[in-house]
Amino acid sequence: MLIRIHPDNPQPRLISQVVEGLQKGNVIIYPTDTIYGLGCDIFHPEAVERICRIKNIDPAKAQLSFICSNLSHLSNYTKVIDRPLYRMLKHFLPGPFTFILPASRIVPKILHNKKSTIGLRIPDNKICLSFLSELGNPILSASLPGEMVEEYTDPELIYEKFEGQVDMVVDGGIGGVIPSTIVDCTGPEPVVIREGLGKFEY
């Protein structure tokens, strides 16, 4: 199913339709503030496993990420955030960054890697934030499989390619080609481990 949602004024009826699907364990492709990504409710392990199969990755070895609606929401899914780290996160979020942080006990084990860390995002995207507001849970944030190609910016072409593999493709307009910047915050100092759309200068 291809669902067209206005990027600046998301239609509540369509947001509810997608969220109802997520609550049932649907896998979706949706726009973020960077690239289109695969997503599901993180509390549906079978949906997480489906995404890993689509990407041809082992859930136990993958560094999976998910999106939250705000810093208060994000703080539920990581261990205690000290004041300097909180200030840094507040400076860069919402925005095109993924921060690697220690996972709290609430995070489903299927999302952990061996180090019990998780990638957390707050995208600057109204469609994403509308989903999160209505769902109440984080949504998995995984890139589409393979190399980033131009076809992955066009939701209609994405739908043609993945129609049989996902339940819904959300058309929120043409997407980007540059993923988020990944910053590892599990050591004494934050370290950029992937340069992406966000400029990490702090």
* Low confidence ranges: none
Class, according to the CATH hierarchy? Alpha Beta
Under CATH, the topology can be stated as: DHBP synthase
Number of helical elements:
6
Please tally the β strands and state the result: 10
**Could you name the CATH homologous superfamily?**
DHBP synthase
Strand order of the largest sheet: 1-8-2-3-7-4-6-5-9-10
- Overall average pLDDT: 93
Number of domains: 1
Q: What order do the SSEs take from the amino end to the carboxyl end, as H and E? A: EHEEHEHHEEHEHEEE
Global structural class: alpha/beta
Instruction: Examine the secondary-structure arrangement and name the CATH architecture.
Output: Alpha-Beta Complex
Shape: globular
Q: Main sheet, how many strands, which sense, barrel?
A: 10 strands, mixed
What percentage of amino acids are in beta strands? Answer: 15-25%
Could you estimate the helical fraction of the residues in percent? 25-40%
Instruction: From the alpha carbons, calculate the radius of gyration and give it in angstroms.
Output: 16 Å
Distance between the termini: 42 Å
In short:
The protein has 202 residues and is α/β, with parallel strands linked by helices.
Describe this structure in words.
- The chain has 202 residues and is an alpha/beta fold.
- It has six helices and ten strands.
- Strands 1-8-2-3-7-4-6-5-9-10 form a ten-stranded mixed beta sheet, sandwiched between helices.
- Helix 1 (12-23) packs across helix 5 (126-135).
- The protein is globular, with a radius of gyration of 16 Å.
Detail the topology: elements first, then pairings.
Elements: E1 2-4, H1 12-23, E2 28-30, E3 37-39, H2 45-55, E4 65-67, H3 71-75, H4 83-92, E5 97-102, E6 117-121, H5 126-135, E7 139-143, H6 155-162, E8 168-171, E9 181-184, E10 191-194
Parallel strand pairs: 1-8, 2-8, 4-6, 5-9
Antiparallel strand pairs: 2-3, 3-7, 4-7, 5-6, 9-10
Helix pairs in contact: 1-5
